[in-house]
Specification:
Strand 4 and strand 5 form a beta hairpin. The protein contains five helices and six strands; from the N terminus they run βαβαβαβββαα. By secondary structure, it is α/β, with parallel strands linked by helices. Strands 2-1-3-4-5-6 form a six-stranded mixed beta sheet. It has one domain: Maf protein (Alpha-Beta Complex). About 35% of the residues lie in helices and about 20% in strands. The structure holds inosine 5'-triphosphate and sodium ion. Sodium ion (NA) binds near residues 51 and 88. The site of inosine 5'-triphosphate (ITT) has 24 residues, from strand 3 and helix 3.
Length: about 200
């Protein structure tokens, strides 16, 4: 049976397909781009979990199929957790990864702090057409580099260096990133729930 990936972010879809398949999920995984007639839901939540649930419910309701959604972002210690849930639109243009990253680096230069702690958070939500819902979270902690490195991944990957590594997330292979990432942790935690509710 089909499991909808309630996201239009190509970087997430690539990672989710690998994470869920590696965890033994055999459902046909179909991204939201297969349903262009379904409008994007307004992300009006104030937490990652709320936004992930909004996106999962919208797709499950509109398709009549189970849906999983990912709401995620980068939380910077010296910025009080910003960009956080606003990570995808930090520069003003939703989904402009380069502009978002450039603005964040400029803001950190302005602050000129040696404190470079940050983490990625991912909320992974599952919603069924009947309204059943579950949500779990995962985190990847590290430090922010001053200069972007690497070309793998997406978003803020070129500046986040995971704790215990000397490379940025964009210098990891996809398998290395998925093994430690916020998204990998959240969706691996969601897999038993998918099995319990979908079989
Ligand atoms: P959907 O709502 O369609 O899923 P989106 O890109 O709008 O796509 P979010 O609102 O969850 O999704 O925004 C997530 C942003 O956080 C994304 O644009 C990245 O900039 C950042 N982000 C999340 N996970 C990341 C990762 O693994 N590596 C780098 N940046 C990440
Ligand atoms: Na969001």
């Amino acid at each position: 049976t089909r499991l909808i990936l309630a996201t239009r972010n190509a970087g997430k879809i690539t990672e989710l397909k690998a994470i869920l398949a590696d965890a033994g999920i055999t459902h046909e995984l179909v991204g939201a781009e297969a349903y262009p007639e379904i409008p994007d839901v307004k992300e009006t939540g104030v937490t990652f979990a709320e936004n992930a649930l909004l996106k999962a419910h919208a797709l499950a309701r509109a398709t009549g199929l189970p849906a999983v959604a990912d709401d995620s972002g980068l939380c910077v210690d010296v910025l009080g957790g910003a960009p956080g849930i606003f990570s995808a639109r930090w520069s003003g243009t939703h989904g402009n990864d380069q502009a978002n990253l450039d603005l964040l680096l400029a803001q950190l230069l302005d602050i000129d702090t040696p404190h470079r702690g940050a983490h990625f958070t991912c909320a992974a939500a599952l919603a069924l057409p009947d309204g059943t819902e579950r949500v779990v979270e995962g985190r990847l902690t590290g430090t922010l580099r001053r200069v972007p490195h690497g070309t793998n991944g997406f978003g803020y990957d070129p500046i986040l260096q995971p704790e215990g590594d000397t490379r940025t997330c964009a210098e990891l292979t996809p398998a290395e990133k998925n093994a430690i990432s916020h998204r990998g942790k959240a969706f691996r935690a969601l897999v038993p729930v998918v099995r319990e509710l979908l079989g």
